[in-house]
Amino acid sequence: MSLDPAAPDQSAPEPPDLDQLRSAYEELRAADLRLDLTRGKPSASQLDLSDGLLSLPTSTTDAAGVDTRNYGGLEGIAELRAMFAELLWVEPEQVVAGGSSSLMMMRDVLSFLWLRGAVDGERPWGAEEKVTFICPVPGYDRHFTLLQWFGIDMVTVPMNDDGPDVEAVAALAASDPSVKGMWLVPTYANPTGSVCTQEVAERLASMPTAAPDFKLFWDNAYAFHHLTPQETKSADITSLATAAGHPHRPLVFASTSKITYAGAGVAFLAGSVDNIGWYVGNLSQGSIGPDKLNQLRHAQFFGSPQGVRDHMVKHREIIAPKFDEVDRVLTERLGGTGVASWTKPAGGYFVSLDVVDGTASRVIELAKQAGVALTPAGSAFPYNDDPRDRNIRLAPTFPPLADVTAAMEAVTTCVLLAAAEKRAE
Ligand code: PMP
């Protein structure tokens, strides 16, 4: 899926020289652009798709007869748990439907591990001398800043097209008892678009770990976010882990943030029945129940698991042309130049662009001066440290299509200029 930097194409026209690129860049600056490709947010027209929610729920009692207006039901309402259990391939009792943010659930889970320890752990993680996480890179910035906030050490492994470099993961997990867990966005990863294959997932589920309470944070934020009609299925990590004798290893996260409303969706946690009981027990120290009315309106809005899949097709129709446009401009302007490679994801919210080593921060700075906001350099790496200073995350869903075109044209000029400056050094 990712392209190697293309070898210079013999038949391609001579690349523009430094002076030509400088004047192209000055023209760009004079155009006074105000464009933003920084965050993976749904656009307003995507949010409009879910406005049916605004007149729901039509009743306030759930399928089990519970009055959703009242306290209680920390694990979430039965019909929404059942719906997402089917989508995530677990039993309803293996799912919690919670508040509106899965990231907050991840922080809660880490807090509970830190303060109370895991169901299969000997002591709270906070009582360990050192806790280390394996982080596939490039990855999701907020995963890394959350670990940093806890004081958890991070070691990186490469993210490949088929998931994390599983040999590297297995070696780290087997040899060091401080390695307590790892992040993974298994499907259409942020930002590479990689999809973790069944084989890689099987290895992650079964590999021996020095820590008995090793946890796989399986953040399936983009499980249903296909950009093509081929709807890739995520590996069934909970079954694989159970079959391998490690039922408590995976903690599966998902949410409807990029299905319905990014600020008012529903987040889910799935895992072993013991993990779910552990989570709800700890959660009860700070909550008497979630927003069940929001959960009920989501259940009514979707109607069924198929309703979720059908809804995602409407998102695809809006955003796939934006991803096509990113690829078109990159290919037309940078293809064959040897100065960049990029992913062509089949789903998710991002394109990962690699430029000439040592120039990503310069590209981002040039783009900023020209009025195009890009995610800060290094943000897809722990401690903001991209050792090769080459990775740039592009997020094309939020701006209108015409802005995506203009922003990408500007980005390619900056990539070419930074590469030419580097050559001239
Ligand atoms: N995980 C990943 C990989 C994400 O990209 C995002 C959103 N950018 C989130 C989690 C946040 O999810 P939520 O809105 O459910 O907190």
Automatic annotation (TrEMBL):
The keyword DNA repair does not apply. Keywords: Aminotransferase, Transferase. It comes from the Bacteria. Pfam families: Asp_aminotransf. The keyword Chloroplast does not apply. One of its GO terms (molecular function) is L-aspartate:2-oxoglutarate aminotransferase activity. PANTHER family: AMINOTRANSFERASE, PUTATIVE-RELATED, ASPARTATE AMINOTRANSFERASE. This is Aminotransferase class I/II-fold pyridoxal phosphate-dependent enzyme. It comes from Nocardioides mangrovicus.
